């Protein structure tokens, strides 16, 4: 069931998203060569707790406040003291905040040091995919219009588009209806309505679209061919005459 939010609920989600954006503005500059993914997670956790929020992933039983995915890891990277960021890596940080019962969700891929040109292009195109998906997210369109906007840009560059995981409704819970795939096709295709709050999140791979789940962690999803993946995500709210990026960093 799709839960349409009223103005009061959207304002609560907006405040949560603003806190999340502020967190990213503090954490992203700290993502440098030599930092561990556990240290990145700690920075996110302490910022959230110090500002009156709760890490939303804890309620999903994820072992961290942040999913920190490096290079070929697509999503749900489990933070570790042993995983050290190296020059040329890309690091995707996916965080949700529960602020007074209102949930925000956003992800950004950080390029560290001397990133190879083809990988830098992957990250830039993934950001273009997110922007295109948001542009298609307007009242009266359908969910698969978002999917097509994301997919068409990625396909134009020959990238693999992850199909096994997708965006989703958000705001009063971590994962709500509807699902928002990045590949158009089968499945539910509801019309986009005012009051929807959605997490749009392209996951774009340099090579194959296929992914594998790490059985050791039970969480981390990586590309099947070991090539890099980028992940960008914003929480947006749909109104009758516009769509607002609630988690915009304002940079």
UniProtKB/TrEMBL annotation:
Q: So what does this one do?
A: Removes the N-terminal methionine from nascent proteins. The N-terminal methionine is often cleaved when the second residue in the primary sequence is small and uncharged (Met-Ala-, Cys, Gly, Pro, Ser, Thr, or Val). Requires deformylation of the N(alpha)-formylated initiator methionine before it can be hydrolyzed.
Database matches in InterPro entries? Creatinase/aminopeptidase-like (IPR036005), Pept_M24 (IPR000994), Pept_M24_MAP (IPR001714), Pept_M24A_MAP1 (IPR002467)
**A single cellular component GO annotation:** cytosol
Q: Which residues bind substrate?
A: 76, 175
What reaction does this catalyse? Release of N-terminal amino acids, preferentially methionine, from peptides and arylamides
Documented EC number(s): 3.4.11.18
Name of the gene this protein is made from: map
Q: Which residues bind a divalent metal cation 1?
A: 94, 105, 233
CDD domains the UniProt entry points to: MetAP1
Key words of the record: Aminopeptidase, Hydrolase, Metal-binding, Protease
Cofactor(s) needed: Co(2+); Zn(2+); Mn(2+); Fe(2+)
Q: What name is this protein filed under?
A: Methionine aminopeptidase
Assembly behavior: Monomer.
Cofactor binding note of this UniProt entry: Binds 2 divalent metal cations per subunit. Has a high-affinity and a low affinity metal-binding site. The true nature of the physiological cofactor is under debate. The enzyme is active with cobalt, zinc, manganese or divalent iron ions. Most likely, methionine aminopeptidases function as mononuclear Fe(2+)-metalloproteases under physiological conditions, and the catalytically relevant metal-binding site has been assigned to the histidine-containing high-affinity site.
HAMAP family recorded: MetAP_1
Domain Peptidase M24 span(s) in chain numbering: 11-238
Binding-site list for a divalent metal cation 2: 105, 168, 201, 233
Q: Name one process (GO BP) from the record.
A: proteolysis
